[in-house]
Design a protein that fits this description.
alpha+beta; Beta-Lactamase; five-stranded antiparallel beta sheet; globular
């Protein structure tokens, strides 16, 4: 009758050991691919933000000059993002690879992952304008679609995001006053500047 006892003990020990090494708790989050329709809808909203903002910026740059156009980026950009968030019920915003606005422009974990994937794909020759990222994530906060669309530096952006020695003194003075922690200069044309980011509850 010794064998069953040993077997039982061994089973018990194995059970204990495995419950220690493999806790029963579910993984903190699960990630699935987004549906094509979810991506299309998100892409349309990201495009609306880019188009509206680009239009306002160009108009202001030619009418008022760069120093006076800082307010477009400072006030109108967040306003457009807030309006789109309200219309859709999603969180719509912009983040940077190096942020100017330390309060709103710094990527969170998934946004940093999206930016890193964009940078990697650009290294492999892909163009920034074609890059997007989408994932459906389920975690303790619920189920969400995470969507990001890459933003590249165009010539007009260099006025305020280019190398420091190329930025006009008047613009520099305004930027320094409003953004003492500004990290968003020193970019080159075509470089990855950041992303339009959307978090959408599902
Ligand atoms: C007139 C100056 C100016 C021009 C031109 C400009 N920006 Fe900005 N940009 C700013 C300012 C100011 C902010 C900070 C806005 C805020 O406070 O939310 C900003 C913020 C951003 C952000 C948000 C992330 C962060 O760093 O806070 C992105 C992305 C961005 N700009 C991309 C661009 C791109 C792309 C272009 C060209 C199409 C461009 N900008 C042109 C002044 C400018």
């Amino acid at each position: 009758m010794k064998t069953p006892l040993i077997v039982t003990l061994t089973l018990l020990l194995t059970a204990c050991a495995s419950s220690e090494t493999k806790p029963e708790a579910k993984p903190a989050s699960t990630v699935e691919a987004a549906q094509p329709q979810q991506i299309e809808e998100s892409r349309a909203v990201a495009k609306t933000l880019a188009t509206q903002l680009g239009g306002k910026l160009k108009e202001s740059m030619s009418k008022n000059g760069p120093a006076q156009s800082i307010s477009v980026c400072k006030e109108i950009a967040p306003q457009i993002a807030a309006d789109l968030s309200k219309q859709t019920g999603w969180q719509v915003g912009r983040v940077g690879t190096r942020a100017r606005n330390a309060a709103t422009g710094v990527p969170n974990a998934w946004q940093a992952e999206a930016l890193a994937s964009f940078a990697e794909r650009m290294k492999n020759g892909e163009k920034a304008d074609t890059l997007e990222f989408a994932q459906v994530v389920t975690d303790s906060t619920g189920k969400h679609l995470h969507y990001a669309k890459a933003i590249a530096i165009q010539p007009v952006c260099l006025t305020c995001h280019g190398p420091a020695d190329k930025i006009a003194d008047g613009v520099k003075a305004r930027l320094n006053a409003d953004y003492p922690l500004d990290r968003a200069t020193g970019y080159q044309e075509g470089e990855l500047r950041g992303a339009v980011v959307i978090t959408r509850p599902l």
